[in-house]
């Protein structure tokens, strides 16, 4: 059947004229999924992406229903390919650098890094996060292969192997106990931090998890970027197949702050309600920037929810 390019209806007079109905910022799993649903609603959408997804260091995306083990860029390529069927979705390889809301009209004004200014009735922020790795020799080189952040994504690939868990605060104990479901040979490396409580030390010992508190000097990898050993500053070393770490994170983009969206104090995540709307009416957020678990499938689901919420709110405004 030929694809309809007709608009479903005319803009009612009381609805403000804007370049787009929805601008989606970020075309990772969350943004692409939002664009797909809005394209199917025949909404006028601009989808902007100015970089690479968070997991581009990784060889594979795991745990994504029907796509388990797919390369990160292949997942996105399929997403873009399928989006091409929806003519009301325009895609740009641009960063959105500025965003503001006109308090009188409720219209959003965005500026792209090309200098182009656009207006829209709704925004979906799907801009993701950046991981800030500790400055240890070898950490960046092995990130995504020998240095891993998530056992749900990569635990199965290293199960029953000797692994280590890195952490310099009390959450390291819980993280190590979680990892011990995948391997019985777990070591904790606190890189010079010695603040673990007696209770936490006992729990680790009870589960045969060995504690290494001395500072790390270097991670030695194999040619395929898997971890080989952890060298410590005191001259000792530990053979390990992988190191798990929960790195610090920061937002990829300052747009949520610029728009005045409420951020959660502890995690810095963008607060959203059950419709995935932020504290600013008309601004939705999806994917890793929200408090939900950081998984590609969950990001895609949040993107879909944001799209549905946007479309329903736009419809309410149109059908008074
Ligand atoms: C090493 C590694 C491995 C992982 N492995 C898995 C796995 O196996 N399975 C799994 O489910 N999850 C995995 N994850 C988590 C997964 O990558 C994220 O949950 C997922 O990418 C989140 O999707 P997102 O759309 O929110 O963000 P992203 O995929 O990070 O996409 C955000 C996009 O927004 C763009 N952007 C940012 N700011 C702007 C701006 N101002 N203007 C325009 N564009 C902008 C960025 O360029 C980026 O393309 C892994 C993560 C890492 C770090």
Automatic annotation (TrEMBL):
Q: What name does this protein carry?
A: NAD(P)/FAD-dependent oxidoreductase
Instruction: Mention one GO molecular function.
Output: oxidoreductase activity
User: Which of UniProt's keywords are assigned here?
Assistant: Flavoprotein, Membrane, Oxidoreductase, Transmembrane, Transmembrane helix
Q: Report TM segments.
A: 20-39
Which stretches make up the FAD/NAD(P)-binding domain? Answer: 20-303
Cell membrane: is it a keyword of this entry?
Answer: no
UniProt keyword annotation of Nucleotide-binding present: no
Recorded hits in Pfam families, A to Z, give: Pyr_redox_2
């Amino acid at each position: 059947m030929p694809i309809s390019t007709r608009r479903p209806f005319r803009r009612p007079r009381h609805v403000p004229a804007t370049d787009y109905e929805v601008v989606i910022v970020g075309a990772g799993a969350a943004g692409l999924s939002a664009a797909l649903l809005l394209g199917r609603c025949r909404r006028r959408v601009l989808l902007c992406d100015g970089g690479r997804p968070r997991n581009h260091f990784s060889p594979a995306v795991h745990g994504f229903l029907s796509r388990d083990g797919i390369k990160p860029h292949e997942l996105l390529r399929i997403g873009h390919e399928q989006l091409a069927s929806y003519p009301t979705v325009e895609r740009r390889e641009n960063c959105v650098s500025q965003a503001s809301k006109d308090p009188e009209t409720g219209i959003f004004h965005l500026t792209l890094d090309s200098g182009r200014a656009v207006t829209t009735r709704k925004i979906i922020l799907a801009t993701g996060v950046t991981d800030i790795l500790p400055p240890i020799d070898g950490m960046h080189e092995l990130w995504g292969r020998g240095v891993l952040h998530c056992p749900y994504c990569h635990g199965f690939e290293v199960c029953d192997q000797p692994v280590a868990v890195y952490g310099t605060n009390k959450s390291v104990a819980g993280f190590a106990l979680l990892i011990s479901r995948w391997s019985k040979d777990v070591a904790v490396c606190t890189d010079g931090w010695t603040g673990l409580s007696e209770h936490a030390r006992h729990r680790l010992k009870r589960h045969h998890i060995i504690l290494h508190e001395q500072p790390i000097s270097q991670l030695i990898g194999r040619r395929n970027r898997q971890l080989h050993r952890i060298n410590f500053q005191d001259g000792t070393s530990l053979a390990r197949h992988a190191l798990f770490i929960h790195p610090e994170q920061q937002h990829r983009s300052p747009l949520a702050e610029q728009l005045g969206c409420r951020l959660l104090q502890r995690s810095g995540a963008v607060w959203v309600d059950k419709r995935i709307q932020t504290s600013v009416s008309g601004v939705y957020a999806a994917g890793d920037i929200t408090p939900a678990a950081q998984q590609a499938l969950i990001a895609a689901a949040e993107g879909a929810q944001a799209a549905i919420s946007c479309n329903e709110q736009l419809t309410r405004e149109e059908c008074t």
